[in-house]
Specification:
seven-stranded antiparallel β-sheet; single chain; signal; 10 strands; alpha+beta
Length: about 230
């Protein structure tokens, strides 16, 4: 599996953090179904977030389109006022190359920990990945963007291999790029690789709390079909 497929394009929506898109809190489903390859899954809607509708759905689609190495299988955005929709949001992604892969959880976490935690392991949101993310964003917005990030391995437990850090993205015409924190839990649900990506641009966003939230989301995802 291409290592860069794990996180590339993950932070595009930071470009639109102040955009007037809204998610509706009303009539939210209790649980949202989705698929990872052939596997049927579901998860509850996270507290404070909503399934994207209307203009927020357009934001969701643009964010997904900017990431050419991962498939967005479901996502959730801040409920309430239009200007708050992208302050905090959650995207469940799967590397395209992993859609049909089956793997045991312990083996996958061992593999990712070894790949990401060694002394020669790259900071995945370094210059190379920044350039890759920028390319995806530029194609979607039809213009020029700037990307700067510091993102890498944090730790591992029985549920996740964790990555996290900071990212700022903006148009070249922006006086101040949009900045935020990113927390990622790489996990396996029912033999399928799932990446939980949580983004937060609010003042005081705390990476430790965000990682705990990402883990809780990962624990809430479950298969709804038999695992053969």
């Amino acid at each position: 599996m291409n290592k860069r497929a794990i996180t590339s394009g993950a932070a595009f929506a930071a470009l639109l953090l102040a955009a007037p898109f809204a998610a509706r809190a009303a009539d939210q489903p209790v649980e949202v179904p989705f698929r990872v390859g052939e596997a049927a899954m579901a998860m509850p809607v996270p507290a404070g977030l909503c399934v994207p509708t209307g203009q927020t759905a357009a934001l969701s689609q643009m964010t997904s389109a900017a990431d050419t190495r991962n498939v967005t299988v479901t996502d959730f955005w801040t409920c309430g006022a239009p200007e708050k929709a992208a302050e905090r949001y959650l995207i469940i992604k799967v590397p395209t190359q992993a859609l049909l892969v089956r793997i045991e959880k312990a083996s996958a976490l061992d593999m990712f920990e070894k790949m990401l935690s060694g002394p020669d392991s790259p900071r995945y949101f370094g210059a190379g990945i920044d350039s890759q993310v920028k390319e995806g964003i530029d194609k979607v917005i039809g213009g020029q963007s700037t990307v700067k990030s510091d993102f890498g391995y944090i730790r591992r437990d029985a549920d996740c291999v964790y990555m996290g850090g900071k990212v700022s993205i903006g148009l070249n015409t922006d006086k101040q790029p949009a900045a935020g924190m990113v927390a990622l839990c790489m996990t396996v649900v029912g033999q399928k690789l799932v990446n939980v990506n949580l983004y937060d641009s609010r003042p005081g966003a705390d990476i430790t709390a965000m990682l705990a939230d990402a883990r809780a989301v990962a624990q809430s995802i479950h298969r709804t079909d038999p695992v053969n």
